[in-house]
Amino acid sequence: MKKQINIALAIVITAIVLGGSHFVASAQTAQHLAFEVPFDFIVGDRQLPAGRYRVRRVKADSETALRIEDERGRLRATVLTNSAVAAPGRAGLTFKQYGDQHFLAAVWMPGAAGGRELQESKQERKLREGLAAGRAAPKTVAVLARQK
Predict the structure, then answer these.
(1) Over 70: is that where the pLDDT of 20 sits?
(2) DSSP per residue over 1-17, as a string?
(3) What pLDDT, on a 0 to 100 scale, did the predictor assign at position 88?
(4) DSSP per-residue string spanning 34-64
(5) What is the percent of the chain with per-residue pLDDT over 70, rounded to a whole number?
(6) Short-list 38, 29, 145, 35, CA closest to 97
(7) pLDDT mean across residues, the chain
């Protein structure tokens, strides 16, 4: 009887450990995304060239601060975000396009209730205000997460 209880306890502990490690792996996947951005873009006050980028949370328990970096980890930008209202069906990046300039506007992470919107930079605000006089609106461009 004692042997059966020990075996049952070992099975329960193994199931908890395996289930917990699956949960941690899923959470890590949701905290790190890969993207192929086909154009130069601006994040905050940083100009980044077209290429492959990773987006992740700066802190695992907070969605507010995000880090955008190239695959080599050399080019980076860290930004503060606000909660976005609507969420698309897939993980991705949303840019606002003013002519040939692209500004990162939002990040959509899988498993999150909503997306994260970036604050408008001074440079983008000037462009938007200049366009407002001509009544032209920026275009919205989406880039979906890359499959690994």
Answers:
(1) no
(2) -HHHHHHHHHHHHHHHH
(3) 61
(4) EEEE-S-EEETTEEE-SEEEEEEEEETTEEE
(5) 70
(6) 38
(7) 77
Whether 79 and 118 have beta carbons less than 8 Å apart is answered as yes
What is the predicted pLDDT for the residue at 8?
A: 45
28 has pLDDT over 50: no
Residue with tokens 């192929």, as numbered in its chain: 36
Pairwise CA distance, residues 66 & 49, whole Å: 18
Which residues make beta-bridge pairs with 41? 48
Domain boundaries, the chain: 1-30, 33-144
How much is the pLDDT for 93?
A: 94
Task: Let me know the angle formed at the C-alpha of 55 by 53 and 17, rounded to the nearest 5 degrees.
Answer: 125
Count CB atoms within 10 A of the CB of residue 11: 10
For residue 123, give the 3-state DSSP assignment. helix
Strand runs labelled E in 39-133: 41-43, 46-48, 51-59, 62-70, 76-83, 92-98, 101-108, 116-118
